[in-house]
Every structure is written in structure tokens, then in C-alpha cells.
């Protein structure tokens, strides 16, 4: 009778909807990987994609998402190192 509940992405990721039932196991793995990607959890996103590619290595959507997640990881690490280096330089010049 009631409309289906709206599943908040944060609730899906944290498993807050119904602790006794794992919602993540019922959700499409590609969707979960996209949620991880949108929440900047690139490592989990790439791990889910790797698991999906073991079953079907010809899925282009999964390959695309995995390459985006791995690229974002590298960019994030590079940006972090760049900020760290600039901070050291600024502090050394004082």
C-alpha cells in the first residue's frame, strides 16, 4: 500500500536502513561502486569494479568507472603531495 522507501545513498553505504538486513548485498554492484565514487571513496569503488570484472571482463561501463576511480586516486595523491610541499615551503620562508 505504501510507496517504496527512498534509499538515501549515505544510508546505503553505512548500512543504516535496517541493520539486520544487509542492503548493500541487494543493490546492484555497479550502483554501489558509483556511490562509493561519488563519496570520494575511490579505493572501494575500484575494488567493487575489480570484483565485477572478474565475472565479466568485457563490461565497458565497469572498465570506465574503474579507470576513473584509479585516475582520481592518483590525482588526489598528487594534489595532497603538492599541497604538502607548498606548505613546507611557506613555513620555511617565514
Describe this structure in words.
With 94 residues, the chain is mainly α. The chain has one domain. Helix content is 67%, strand content 0%. It contains four helices and no strands. Helix 2 packs antiparallel against helix 3 and helix 3 (42-55) packs antiparallel against helix 4.
Which secondary structure elements does this structure contain, and how are they paired or packed?
Elements: H1 9-14, H2 29-38, H3 42-55, H4 60-92
Helix pairs in contact: 2-3, 3-4
Order of helices and strands: HHHH
Number of helix segments? 4
Uncertain regions spanning at least 5 consecutive residues: none
Helix content bin:
55-70%
Q: How many domains would you count in the coordinates?
A: 1
Query: Could you tell me the radius of gyration in angstroms?
Result: 18 Å
Mean pLDDT: 81
Number of DSSP-assigned strands: 0
Q: State the major sheet.
A: none
Distance between the terminal alpha carbons, to the nearest Å? 68 Å
- In what range is the share of β-strand residues? under 5%
Brief summary of the model shown:
The chain is built from 4 helices and no strands.
What tags apply to this protein structure?
single chain; 94 residues; mainly alpha; 4 helices; 67% helix
Amino acid at each position: 500500500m505504501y510507496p517504496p522507501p527512498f534509499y538515501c545513498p549515505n544510508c546505503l553505504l553505512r548500512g543504516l536502513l535496517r541493520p539486520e538486513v544487509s542492503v548493500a548485498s541487494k543493490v546492484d554492484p555497479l550502483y554501489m561502486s558509483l556511490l562509493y565514487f561519488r563519496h570520494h571513496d575511490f579505493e572501494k569503488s575500484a575494488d567493487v569494479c575489480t570484483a565485477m570484472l572478474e565475472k565479466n571482463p568485457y563490461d565497458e561501463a565497469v572498465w570506465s568507472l574503474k579507470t576513473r576511480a584509479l585516475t582520481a586516486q592518483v590525482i588526489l595523491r598528487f594534489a595532497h603531495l603538492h599541497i604538502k610541499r607548498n606548505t613546507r615551503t611557506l613555513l620555511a620562508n617565514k
